[in-house]
Design brief:
Blueprint (H helix, E strand, L loop, with lengths): L2 E4 L1 E4 L7 E4 L2 E5 L3 E3 L12 E8 L12 H11 L1 E8 L2 H31 L2 H6 L2 H17 L7 E4 L4 E5 L3 H4 L18
Parallel strand pairs: 1-7, 2-5
Antiparallel strand pairs: 3-4, 4-9, 6-7, 8-9
């Protein structure tokens, strides 16, 4: 069964004792509110972006070796859905929107180019000269990857019942968080 974890939006007057740093990780406890500081630059901001993803324990990835079916069955039963509003500056959000539009434009241009190639060249040339076709497919793939990029790149490394651990937050953001007290986590949660 999927378990959905929802966290509060970032707050300007940050006095929450549920968000800590530990090395390069951010520990966010259930019902925590993140400080209203950009996850990429550490600057104060009122803007935020939705970050929705799923998580399952990393040992489940080994189940793909015997086959996709055991992996899908077990991963589905351990999957947790995580929804966060991550703070980000408006300038980075606008830059990300421009990158997405560029990726969508590249993907659309590749599709149009591919269709034009198919309509304008005789079928015999489709087999003899694959370079334009391969180029249009690669441009379409690059456009898709660019358009699907997330504005904030953090990775969930641990998400049990009451805790979410993110890796990849920059030092500028981590510097505004208090250190994780040693007695905060149970012994099985310290081995992240």
């Amino acid at each position: 069964p999927e378990v959905e974890e929802t966290f509060k939006p970032p707050q300007e007057n940050y006095e929450d004792d549920l968000v800590f740093r530990s090395g390069s990780d951010v520990h966010i406890f259930r019902n925590a509110a993140l400080p209203a500081r950009c996850m990429m630059t550490g600057e104060e901001t009122a803007a935020s972006v939705s970050f929705a993803t799923t998580w399952h324990p990393s040992w489940i990835n080994w189940l793909i070796l015997p086959g996709i079916l055991p992996y899908l069955v077990v991963a589905g039963s351990f999957r947790q859905k995580v929804n966060l509003l991550l703070p980000i500056t408006e300038s980075l959000l606008e830059k990300h929107d421009r990158i997405i539009l560029g990726g969508l434009g590249l993907m659309l241009a590749a599709i149009v180019f591919f269709i034009m190639l198919m309509l304008m060249t005789p079928p015999a040339l489709h087999r003899s000269s694959n370079f334009p076709i391969v180029l249009s497919v690669l441009c379409g793939l690059l456009g898709f990857l660019t358009a699907s990029r997330r504005p904030v790149s953090v990775r969930i490394i641990y998400a049990p019942n009451n805790l979410l651990v993110l890796r990849g937050a920059p030092r500028d953001y981590l510097g505004h968080l208090p250190d994780l007290p040693a007695d905060t986590l149970r012994s099985d949660e310290r081995n992240v």
